[in-house]
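Technical note accompanying the year-one report. For the benefit of new consortium partners, we illustrate the data format agreed upon in the data management plan: each record pairs a sequence with a structure-token string. No post-processing was applied to the example shown here.
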Amino acid sequence: MKWITLLIGVMLVIAYGIPRVSKDIDLFIKATQKNTEKLLKALKEAGIGTASLTTAKEISDHEITVFKDYLRVDILTKVKGLDFEKAYQSRDFLEMDGLLIPALNYQDLLKSKKSAGRPRDLEDIKELEKVKKILEANKSL
């Protein structure tokens, strides 16, 4: 079962090398009926019990749906500053435990953080840019 989604948020910041603690997983999804049905089924199969309290239509109709369970999962159908289709076309993949996870690319992550504009997001931008400079400097060695 495949659904169309992108990893965003703090988990992605961590994957880019910034030491942070996350209480949740944020997923940016293509908000079609078929896609949200597949995602909802996958959440239920993963043991996210609160997923049984909503419908695919309710997820599609809201900008954010939060599942608070043993694992908090935030499903976003809109992200300020981003168009899902464009972000999906330019996505990156992260390898985690042998799985390839589709994720926002670095530039879109920065764009989403800038658009959110919260103090923590602005701090993330500074840290991400530091890591990028270090990686670029190491490439020239």
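Partners are asked to follow this layout when depositing records. The radius of gyration is 16 Å.
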